[in-house]
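Sanity check

After download, print the first record. It should look like this:
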Amino acid sequence: MENQNPRPYGVGDASFQAAGGEAGLRKLVDDFYDAMDQLPEAAKIRAMHPVDLTVTRDKLTRFLCGWLGGPKLYAERYGSIIIPQAHRRFEIGPAERDAWLACMREALKNQPYAAEFKQYLLEQLYVPAERSRNKD
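Expected structure tokens:
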């Protein structure tokens, strides 16, 4: 019999599984950075990143794996991370935070996730995006 009551998002690895595991998150991150290259409102935050996004893509994918309850891949490769400290060298205000979230919203359109999970993920991603903000 199929489980009619899956674990809610945010419990155990339910969010990691809903995102398609590491492979699903890699696709999300690739689409996220593609959106950052395309959205005019993201030009300023794109300029905060290196031209070659290979390592940047890997870091975000690995971070999201652990953050969503999956394996702690970021820590395995890069060590621990404290979101505000990792971003303090950049000037991040509400506009930059919102541009980052707009890129994620755009990337989510391409994912085969349940609509409820997409909404949940955007709401949850607001927290680290806001924690990265260091100016008004």
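If your output differs, re-run the checksum step. Summary of this record's structure: Residues 24 and 111 are 8 Å apart (CA to CA).
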